[in-house]
Amino acid sequence: MECVFGLVGNGFAIVAADTSAVHSILVHKSNEDKIMILDSHKLIAASGEPGDRVQFTEYIQKNVALYQFRNGIPLTAVAAANFTRGELATALRKNPYFVNILLAGYDKETGPSLYYIDYIATLHKVEKGAFGYGSYFSLSMMDRHFHSGMSVEEAIDLVDKCILEIRSRLVVAPPNFVIKIVDKDGAREYAWRESVKEAVAV
Amino acid sequence: MGIRAILSSHLPNGQFGRHSLCLAAVGREHKKLPTLYFDIYRFSKQFPPLLLSIFGLSASDLCSFSFLFNLSLKIMKLDTSGLESAASLFGASSELFDGFATAPSFELPVTNDFDGFQKEAIQMVKPAKGTTTLAFIFKEGVMVAADSRASMGGYISSQSVKKIIEINPYMLGTMAGGAADCQFWHRNLGIKCRLHELANKRRISVTGASKLLANILYSYRGMGLSVGTMIAGWDETGPGLYYVDSEGGRLKGTRFSVGSGSPYAYGVLDSGYRYDLSIEEAAELARRAIYHATFRDGASGGVASVYYVGPNGWKKLSGDDVGELHYKYYPVMPSTVEQEMVEVSGA
To answer: What residue ranges do the domains of chain A occupy?
Structure first.
């Protein structure tokens, strides 16, 4: 049910995730932000069991911050991805985390990157990736329309195409999505795509 | 073996369960670093601030970070701080080394068919979350409402259960799922909140309280706890409402309903909700939503209690029997008779 997908463009990486918090047939919340800003130039889009998702991504976030405090320099995206995979792998045979992760990062030396990290600790560096039922629709859309070095406008257009496809073809399609981008200026929220307005807390 | 620890410093801001930095200092076991982070993170979420430092660190490190003890345990750690007093932690540093070596145990019952007995026991305590609770934030504060029926399968065991638990004078928790689990862990949360107040000279926020509870429940994940609760309160930032459940999920929101009757309650609540309701209107909305849920859901019923949480704490507003509410909302009208049976004479 949880749709997460992302792609790499020209000097940036973009990830989109749905924002519904669901419990069997009930939607508890439709503005839950599942893309965590890991540090200034990294994003983690996570989908999976609610407790695991929050706890594991917070754990990774704090350890990445710890590394920066201890060593004075931030982790690279590839290092953060490998650390994440390592944690998932270590916990796998005892107390597995059921979280699927797309880690988007930007390094000054190597540029933007996107890492696909499975709940069974698979790690791949990819240019486009997706998780969840939405992946059945978004992967082929991205395969068809993606090319290396897309501009932000082209990439957002592709993301919107994928969201539209998911909304129209997936039986329990999530109503709202959040899009976040990471480039040389840092990781930040780009836009929300809402079709159901949630009452905002004070 | 683990890391040797000596008593020396405490967490910088004195808040337990919330600090974000974990520092692992390693004596001889550099290769265990990855699991150290994992253990220390988990450990840090569960234990009250211990006075520790890690052997072998420089003074500058000691000053900058919070320190934790590395248990060389690789198994899931339970948060048993609710079951032990804080005093025991200070004296028993050698026992902490080995972790929880002696597990609590109990005697098994004498029976011919132990498997059958186990099955029956599990069925009896099987969580069904038969209840309706709801809470929502509005202009004046938070409105919390719940029914009061307890059911064991098809049997109504009680019609007068208190499902709104008073954690402290400005925070409420709702009960859905296992009654014992909810009552115990809410009481435990109340203890932790009070300890926080005493340690920090200020009240804990609703965010902090709900995170404390969520971390505890997460550590017991998969062990059969059944808790679906909402933490509602008023703190410095205004009204706060969080949904926390025993699967480890924690959601911040403005409207929640939990339990078997929650879909029914959501319908009435969503359609009647406006942010700028007055207190009476909000109470009536909450009461009506609970009533409609009890009407349709067999596992909800009894008394619809409504509480209000405002800047000065919570206040119970009403507790009405849902049967009486039914006749208040839908009074009995004399209905026209369609067909009347008439005695036919001479048959």
So the answer is: 4-199
Chain B hits for A87, Cβ within 8 Å: 34, 37-38
Is A98:A118 a contact under the CB 8 Å cutoff? no
| CATH number of the A4-199 domain | 3.60.20.10
A169 in Cβ contact with A14 (< 8 Å) = no
Please tell me the distance from the alpha carbon of residue B156 to that of residue B300, in angstroms, as a whole number: 10
Chain A residue with the nearest C-alpha to that of B64: A69
Q: Would you give per-residue pLDDT tens digits along chain B (347 residues)?
A: 443 433 334 434 334 333 333 333 333 434 444 444 444 444 444 444 433 333 333 444 433 443 344 333 344 566 666 665 544 444 444 444 444 545 666 666 676 777 777 777 655 554 357 899 999 999 999 999 999 998 887 889 999 999 999 998 999 999 898 888 999 999 999 999 999 999 999 999 999 999 999 999 999 988 889 899 999 999 999 999 999 999 889 999 999 999 988 889 999 999 999 999 999 999 999 999 999 999 998 899 999 999 999 999 999 999 999 999 999 999 888 877 777 777 777 65
pTM of the predicted model as reported, rounded to 2 decimal places: 0.71
Distance from the B22 Cα atom to the nearest Cα atom in chain A, whole angstroms: 7
Report the alpha-carbon distance of residue A57 to residue A107 in Å, rounded.
Answer: 20
Biggest distance spanned by C-alpha atoms of chain B: 113
